[in-house]
Amino acid sequence: MTYQGIIHEYRDYLNIPADTQAVTLLEGNTPLISMQPLVAKLGLDVKLWVKFEGVNPTGSFKDRGMTVAISEAKLRGANTVICASTGNTAASAAAYAARAGMKSIVIIPSGKVAAGKLAGAIAYGAEVFQINGSFDEALNIVVAIAESHPIALVNSINPYRLEGQKTAAFEICKTLDDAPDWLAIPVGNAGNITAYWMGFKQYSQKWGTALPKLLGVQAQGAAPLVLGHTVENPETVATAIRIGKPARGEEALLAAQESGGSIISVSDGLILDSQKLLAKNGLWVEPASAAGLAGLIQEMKSNKSKFVDKKVVIVCTGHGLKDPDIITRDFSSPKVFPAELKALERAILHKE
Q1: N or C: which terminus of the chain has fewer CB atoms within 10 Å of its end residue's CB?
Q2: pLDDT at residue 323, as a whole number
Q3: Class of domain 62-158
Q4: Mind listing the pLDDT tens digit for each residue in 310-322?
Q5: pLDDT of residue 352
Q6: What is the fold, at CATH topology level, of the domain defined by 6-59+161-328?
């Protein structure tokens, strides 16, 4: 049967109104890619896969939750949706709103959104408003607007977002015929780690699969769940997780604790190194998406034994094209050669 998106595929698992009509761009069904060549290069003794969410329709995992949130909003008769965003949510909300024939409004923090993500929101027709403040301030504003006006809020505090995002856990279990021993995942607003845990628990109850340990990973400059307090001015190169007050923070901490895992922080340097490692193995992800690998590498150095011969899945949440500035800013223009065979042969074979 032709794949028709996550609502059609997993409707019986989703806590949504029975008469919900799917607004879909055929999101989900993303690949689980073996990374054993990378494991060999790093000298790690694990079985490693990447759940590559960057191949979703707008290039990030947000599409899983957005198809459900927009579908439910349309069922209620909403004609406008709103979100605060550091980028990925904006693009996804705008795309699915456009698909549904709805208006989308996006509020972004000043100077904190990658160009590739903002371009997506604009291309899909969103009205974009930039504030002189943080993501957390933007979120407070959109919550207030949604409470006072007939506008549907589609940030991850909307429970239907998590209903969609949990389906990635189902896919992992179906592919592996069980849950992994560990799941390493970036943590920003903390909705995704919360959703994965929901999904693994639900799948386990249905099919008797094991439950993984969760390794949530924040950037050191935006690590409120590690520090134990709000970060007023979060800073990290990983723009997608540059959040100082996660909306689902308490739930994320509980998920990590229940699973027997933890939430840690890693440096920007290790995140960028991990992004390069993934790219050299064929996967270009945005910096935040490399946080999971960065966290695994860091944890392996301090406590290698707990990962030995374990099945580990790293969630890579967004494609590299979502935030290409990190790559292009360090790229010098290529040397120009004459359009002559001999000149290029000499250069390619390093004879000049």
Answers
A1: N
A2: 83
A3: alpha beta
A4: 999 999 999 999 8
A5: 53
A6: Rossmann fold (3.40.50)
